[in-house]
Design goal:
There is one protein chain. The chain is α/β, with parallel strands linked by helices. Helices cover 40% and strands 12% of the residues. It has one domain: TIM Barrel, CATH 3.20.20. The chain has 10 helices and 10 strands. The strands form 2 sheets. An 8-stranded parallel beta sheet has the order 3-4-5-6-7-8-9-10. A two-stranded antiparallel ribbon has the order 1-2. It starts with 7 loop residues before the first helix and ends in a 15-residue tail after the last helix.
Length: 344
């Protein structure tokens, strides 16, 4: 080799030196954003585990629990919320039942390639004893894709029992067999599951490396167990994570989200404060709150902006803990199980 050519090592050393010099000068090369779906420079993006997808740091949960307080046409509401998400660079929506999947497919018509969409047919998956084989699960997926006029899903995340340990190991194997088959057939680009059972989730991640993504409850009250944490498995197995119920089933709020709600400004502030706290845990790829208005989308995007600008002050951290103590004591009926997710 002639003296005019660099060896691979020399090239690497030169590139590294250039990078250090650029960083020192404040001119580090900009990150490549060309592969980030619906990229917005004001949004933060995180890698979704071994899927290698870059998703927004706050995503759209599929539930619309309080849309009824808006007094709007439902389809118009969902379309407006989705479009506002795209404007802010929010690029993932999670739909976990038949009506949600059909609604968001309709809202994304003509824009399906601008947002990652996850789906599940919870009523026709393993919570239902008639859908605990790979064959029946594939039938469920095929019907859901057909009814929502889609050829594929970006993520099929099967909705499992909240206490997942109620599933037999045989059912666990059937779940994974169906997920693998869907991915092989191109019906699901990525695969995962949703559960409210920490120990079972950890077992599934460790036993089945095919699992790429997991959804589980995560609030500002949640803390990492020093030993045998679910996050140990998540990090070791490079699994992407979405945190559901970030607002503890809305128990952190004073109002009801209606346009004339007198507590709207305070509730917006609380939502941002809690999201900023959750975003501090890098093991959570993104929380996925349900959003029922364009204003709420604007507010969660503002939370990301505030998070990027500065960390929480000690007084803010203390306020989060007071808010969550109150929320824990005032969970809605049927949501007491959230307390089981204080330590993960």
């Amino acid at each position: 080799m002639s003296d005019s050519k660099l060896t691979r090592r020399q090239f690497g050393q030169a590139a590294a030196a250039a990078g250090v010099a650029a960083a020192a000068a404040g001119t580090a090369p900009a990150a490549d954003t060309s592969k980030i779906l619906s990229h917005n420079p004001d949004m933060l993006y995180r890698r979704l585990g071994k899927t290698d997808l870059k998703v927004s740091a706050v995503c759209l949960g599929g539930h619309w629990k309080r849309v009824n307080v808006m007094g709007q046409d439902f389809d118009k509401n969902r379309r407006e919320v989705v479009l506002r998400c795209l404007e802010h660079g929010i690029n993932y929506v999670d739909a976990c039942c038949h009506p949600e999947v059909c609604a968001y497919s309709k809202a994304l018509k003509g824009r399906r390639d601008q947002m990652y969409m996850a789906l599940s047919y919870c009523g026709h998956e393993v919570r239902n004893p008639n859908y605990r084989t790979a064959g029946k699960l594939m039938e469920s997926l095929d019907k859901l894709l057909h009814d929502s006029h889609q050829e594929y899903t970006d993520l099929w995340r099967i909705t499992c029992f909240e206490p997942g340990g109620r599933h037999t190991f045989n059912t666990s194997c059937e779940i994974v067999a169906a997920l693998e088959k869907a991915k092989k057939q191109g019906k699901a680009r990525h695969i995962g599951l949703s559960t409210h059972d920490r120990r079972w989730a950890k077992m599934m991640i460790e036993q089945f490396p095919q699992i790429e993504v997991i959804l589980f409850p995560y609030t500002a009250k949640t803390k990492r167990i020093p030993e045998d944490s679910l996050f140990d498995a998540v990090e070791q197995c490079d699994v992407g994570t979405f945190g559901i119920k970030p607002f503890a089933s809305n128990s952190i709020f004073k109002g009801n989200s209606a346009p004339d709600n007198p507590h709207a400004e305070e509730d917006d502030r609380r939502a941002r404060l809690v999201l900023r706290f959750i975003l501090r845990n890098k093991a959570i790829t993104a929380p996925i709150p349900g959003l029922i208005s364009k204003h709420q989308v604007d507010n969660v995007a503002k939370a990301v902006t505030e998070y990027r600008k500065h960390d929480l002050a000690e007084a803010e951290k203390a306020e989060v803990q007071r808010l969550m103590d109150h929320a824990w004591a005032n969970l809605p009926p049927g949501y007491g199980w959230l307390r089981d997710w204080e330590y993960v």
